[in-house]
């Protein structure tokens, strides 16, 4: 008799799909809607999975569910392997699609800049069907479900190659309306603005402190400035006239060119701020994809003049 296969211990695929959706969405009802089944069907799949594993994956409350610590760890592993199956299936069954469709996930601020430049990319590579999404947080990166990612930092994760794209100091920007209400000529004028007007990014909390220290303004605090989750939100706040933000000039170039943002201090008057780095990250096994190679060359052409200027 043949020895049992380790695969015999795997739960049914439908149960794993229900678990992944319910765990990610923290809702049986929303998981059912995504999977086009009834909530009771999802509940049965979750009960089957917990029974087969002998482990409680969720805490079931009257109107909601939440993952147990064991469920959270299992969800990470299941998600990774389900995405791997999707990628393997795509590579096997859609060779033509894989030659022309390019899926890219970008940091939101970089994505906003990219949108303003994509018409030029499409004119040069009309055969590439680029699908661009943005990340809502660091957890959206590294899932292996897209062809390439544009994210902060240049360090490569296991299985990924990187192409540095941008490294430049942040600059102080605000709306023309804000500048009209608060005349600013040199950084020392910031002593006269409200502390909450120094717009902070929660994903880079020390940026204002470093900038103020370099400007010799250690007595000015940004700790009570309005805080936003990422640079894209801080940019929108600055455009709306809420205050001043520290952002990489290249990535707010569309707003500067349109006059929605201005730089209140000339380059020689403001300190060299924290350097922001971005890179293109892509799985090593997708490196030879024609569409990805075309996108990489185009990014180099777009950003090389800025790198040389910096």
Automatic annotation (TrEMBL):
Residues of the signal peptide: none
Keyword Metal-binding present in the record's keywords: the answer is no
Residue ranges of every copy of the HTH lysR-type domain listed in the record = 11-68
Question: Superkingdom of the source?
Answer: Bacteria
Record GO biological process: DNA-templated transcription
SUPFAM superfamilies, alphabetized: Periplasmic binding protein-like II, Winged helix' DNA-binding domain
Q: Which Gene Ontology terms cover its molecular function?
A: DNA-binding transcription factor activity; sequence-specific DNA binding
> What Pfam families does the entry give?
HTH_1, LysR_substrate
Coiled coil (residue ranges)? none
Gene3D superfamilies xref list = Periplasmic binding protein-like II, Winged helix-like DNA-binding domain superfamily/Winged helix DNA-binding domain
Sorted keywords for this record are: DNA-binding, Transcription, Transcription regulation
Indicate the family of this protein: Belongs to the LysR transcriptional regulatory family.
UniProt protein name = Transcriptional regulator, LysR family
The source organism is Pseudonocardia dioxanivorans (strain ATCC 55486 / DSM 44775 / JCM 13855 / CB1190)
Upper lineage ranks? Bacteria, Bacillati, Actinomycetota, Actinomycetes, Pseudonocardiales
């Amino acid at each position: 008799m043949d020895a049992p296969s380790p695969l015999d211990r795997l739960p049914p695929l439908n149960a794993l799909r229900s678990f992944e959706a319910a765990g990610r969405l923290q809702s049986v009802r929303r998981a059912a809607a995504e999977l086009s089944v009834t909530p009771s069907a999802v509940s049965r799949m979750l009960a089957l999975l917990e029974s087969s594993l002998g482990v409680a994956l969720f805490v079931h409350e009257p109107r909601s569910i939440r993952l147990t610590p064991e469920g959270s760890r299992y969800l990470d592993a299941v998600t990774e392997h389900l995405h791997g199956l999707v990628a393997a299936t795509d590579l096997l069954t859609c060779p033509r699609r894989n030659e022309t469709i390019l899926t890219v996930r970008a940091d939101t601020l970089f994505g906003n800049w990219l949108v303003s430049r994509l018409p030029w990319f499409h004119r040069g590579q009309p055969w590439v069907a680029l699908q661009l999404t943005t990340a809502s947080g660091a957890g959206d990166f590294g899932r292996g479900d897209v062809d390439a990612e544009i994210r902060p930092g240049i360090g490569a994760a296991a299985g990924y190659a990187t192409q540095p794209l941008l490294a430049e100091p942040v600059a102080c920007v605000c709306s023309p309306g804000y500048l009209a209400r608060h005349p600013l000529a040199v950084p020392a004028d910031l002593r006269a603005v409200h502390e909450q007007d120094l717009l902070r990014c929660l994903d880079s909390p020390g940026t204002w402190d470093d900038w103020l220290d370099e400007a010799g303004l250690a007595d000015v605090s940004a700790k009570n400035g309005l805080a936003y989750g990422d640079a894209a939100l801080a940019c929108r706040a600055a455009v709306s006239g809420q205050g001043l933000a520290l952002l990489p000039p290249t990535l707010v170039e569309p707003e500067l060119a349109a006059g929605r943002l201005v730089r209140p201090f000339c380059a020689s008057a403001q300190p060299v701020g924290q350097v922001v780095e971005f890179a293109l990250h892509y799985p090593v096994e997708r490196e030879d994809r024609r569409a990805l190679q075309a996108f990489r060359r185009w990014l180099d052409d777009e950003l090389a003049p800025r790198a040389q200027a910096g």
